[in-house]
Amino acid sequence: MNLRTALSGDAALLAPRLLGCRLERQLEGQLLVGRIVETEAYDQSDPASHSYRGPTSRTEVMFGPPGRLYVYLSYGLHYCANIVVGPAGHGAAVLIRAIEPLQGAATMASRRGRQGPAVSNGPAKTSVALAIGPELNGHDLQFPPLRLVLQPPLPPEHIVTTRRIGISRAVDRPWRFYLKDSPYISRP
DNA sequence: TGCCTGATGTTCT
DNA sequence: GAACATCAGGCAC
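ok -> structure tokens follow
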């Protein structure tokens, strides 16, 4: 099954499905690999989502085909990375909140100026560690320099489901998912 | 350890 | 004009 087909479903179902999958970033001849350990789902039916009010020049990528990268600027300074999901025309995405470095960990730590979990235990930190910026907005994740590599789904008992973090609308939706026992979670 | 604040672009009211 | 899917540094305890 190709990436686009795999990601054409519902954001709230795909967000936990993406846990354990890998992001491979080609950067200056080096390969940085991270395992996704924390995600949040956002959908156009959801007042907390950028896509709630329909497509704009910023959010049009969310309404495009699945398997693309949606990068937005948060609070005027931080870039955050999302994986677009759902069929074209439907505005939904999964926010990558944290990764666990598997390869190139030293490079990621150096890019962040931090060691340990602080390298990538947050959405903007993850973007810095993997060198994800606005130039990758709309990028197709089937291809370098940034690829999403699916892994077999993890057993449900390894996944914790909670409310989302850092939002003020639709706070009750249990659309945040993280890997139990990962030290790279942004907030337990 | 934990609260408070500054930085700062895009979007919406 | 205000809110916002954030982070890091400073200061009080």
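The longest helix of chain A spans residues 105-112.
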